[in-house]
UniProtKB/TrEMBL annotation:
Transmembrane segments: none annotated. This is Four helix bundle protein. InterPro entries: 23S_rRNA-intervening_sequence, 23S_rRNA_IVS_sf.
Length: 79
């Protein structure tokens, strides 16, 4: 079995990336009045999911990775 060498190989990160694209497409239809409110908040939280997965992976410690996954999960709940 091969070892994962990059966060980009993680299926969860790949799904998070696709999710961001879907969120950006969805929020395009939101009112322009919400651009700096709801739209910004949802987009920021969506981007945070993959960012935390990648940052946790690069820490090279299972405990730290687990903590960053928990943060990513919180971002999912925020979206």
């Amino acid at each position: 079995m091969s070892t994962i060498k990059s966060f980009e190989e993680l299926e969860v990160w790949q799904r998070a990336r696709k999710f961001v694209l879907k969120i950006y497409n969805l929020t395009k239809s939101f009112s322009k009045d919400e651009l700096y409110g709801l739209t910004y908040q949802i987009r920021r939280a969506a981007v945070s999911i993959g960012s935390n997965i990648s940052e946790g992976f690069d820490r090279r410690s299972d405990k730290e990775f687990s903590n960053f996954l928990a943060i990513a999960r919180g971002s999912i709940a925020e979206v």
